[in-house]
Design brief:
Layout lengths: L1 E7 L5 H11 L11 E9 L7 E10 L2 E9 L2 H24 L1
Parallel strand pairs: 1-2
Antiparallel strand pairs: 2-3, 3-4
Helix pairs in contact: 1-2
Length: 99
């Protein structure tokens, strides 16, 4: 599984990158054919003083692509909710294929 983490409008510290990688390590338990994972961490509303932290996750599997996006006041929280939504998508897709 190839993981690509990109940050927009800021530089991620080592703790944030470790957190993302640790959480993504659990993904293969839900789908065994994950080819690539793209994570985008962005600061939204940079022009104004309100800085929402946005996490986008795109997972590439053969013949399909999963995508989620979440925003909150911290990157960890945004990433967690995006990851939860992504896991739900993967589970629903697997249920459809099994039916």
């Amino acid at each position: 599984m190839n993981v690509n983490i990109q940050t927009v409008h800021f530089d991620a510290d080592e703790k944030l990158v470790e957190f993302v990688n640790r959480k993504l390590a659990k993904l293969p338990t839900f789908h065994d054919k994950i080819l690539k994972v793209d994570v985008f961490l962005k600061l939204d509303n940079v022009v104004h003083n309100i800085k929402d932290k946005v996490a986008e996750i795109k997972v590439h599997v053969p013949k399909h692509e999963f995508f989620t996006k979440a925003s909150s006041k911290s990157f960890e929280e945004s990433f967690e909710s995006a990851l939860d939504a992504l896991i739900n998508q993967i589970k629903r897709k697997k249920e459809k294929l099994a039916a």
